[in-house]
Amino acid sequence: MDYLNASYRYVDELLPSIEDLNSDFLSTDFLTVEGFDFLDISWFHFFHVWLFLFMSSFILIALSHIYYKTYPEVSEGLIKGKRVLIVIAHPDDECMFFGPTIVNLTKKSGVDVHLMCLSEGNYYGDGDIRSRELLSSCQELGIPLSNIRLFSNGHLPDDPLVDWDPEIVASLISWHVEAMAMDTLLTFDDRGVSGHRNHIAISRSVNVLLSENRLPSSCKCYALKSESIFLKYTGFLIVFLKRKHSNVYVSSHTDHKTIKNAMSKHASQYVWFRKLFVTFSSYCYLNTLVCPQI
Ligand SMILES: [Zn+2]
């Protein structure tokens, strides 16, 4: 404790007194270090900043042009199955996170994409509105209405503070995989992409199913990889960083427009920061799939 007291005294001595704050501390002299004046921004410095911004903009525009022209094709990706079940927690997860995978799969002939949404997104009491928005969004993404299962279950509330019971979620998923003869299951990974507890709960439930061999052996499981914070907001630039990987689905320029249109169907959620998200989030341009590790 003496050591701590000594430390606090030392810090106190370093702090300026009230008189200092009223006079010298806020004077421009304080901003001068070893002869360098921070307030002296000359035209020479201004030119370098301008040049940096100009070159950065030029490179970004050139890369976006290459992106628009280079990726009109369908990504092959990892999924080879014909009956794909995607499990999400809330309306809008399908386009905010799984958009590139869904638009690529629905373009392939013979692939039937199904969606399970485990809550109505009723956190703010607008579950009815969000349910209808989900249907409109799925139509835009190419998922038939008959392939959508939307749940309103008191045990699975839309709530970032509630851990869903893994057994309830696991039972729902396994029943639907068997009843609808699914050969592929896709959901969040163990970090839940955005870290939402409801997303993570689905991942945990799938891990329970896999570890207890409760899924048909013909059903392959995949998880959407949570990108690092650096890659999460690189926008279309992630395409240049990861396009060579065999486990990715890439949105073409047209696909990205489709995802944006689908997101706009979630009108109650489409506020300014989600508009920015659709533009700058790498999940709207590229999905990386991995096999869950048990
Ligand atoms: Zn969600």
Structural account:
Residues 1-12 and 21-33 have low confidence and may be disordered. The longest helix is centred in the N-terminal third of the chain and has 28 residues, at 43-70. This protein has one domain: LmbE-like (Rossmann fold). Helix 5 crosses helix 12 (253-264), helix 6 (127-141) runs antiparallel to helix 12 and helix 7 (166-179) packs across helix 9. The protein has 294 residues and is α/β, with parallel strands linked by helices. A seven-stranded mixed β-sheet has the order 5-4-3-6-7-9-8, sandwiched between helices. A two-stranded antiparallel sheet has the order 1-2. It is built from 13 helices and nine strands. It binds zinc ion. Zinc ion binds next to loops.
Secondary-structure blueprint:
Layout: H1 2-14, H2 18-22, E1 32-33, E2 36-37, H3 43-70, E3 83-88, H4 93-96, H5 99-107, E4 112-117, H6 127-141, E5 148-150, H7 166-179, E6 184-188, H8 192-195, H9 197-211, E7 220-224, H10 229-232, H11 237-242, E8 248-250, H12 253-264, H13 272-280, E9 286-290
Parallel strand pairs: 3-4, 3-6, 4-5, 6-7
Antiparallel strand pairs: 1-2, 7-9, 8-9
Helix pairs in contact: 5-12, 6-12, 7-9
Zinc ion binds near residues 89, 90, 93, 196 and 199.
Give me some keywords for this one.
294 residues; Rossmann fold; membrane; alpha/beta; disordered N terminus; N-acetylglucosaminylphosphatidylinositol deacetylase; single chain; binds zinc ion; EC 3.5.1.89; transmembrane helix; globular
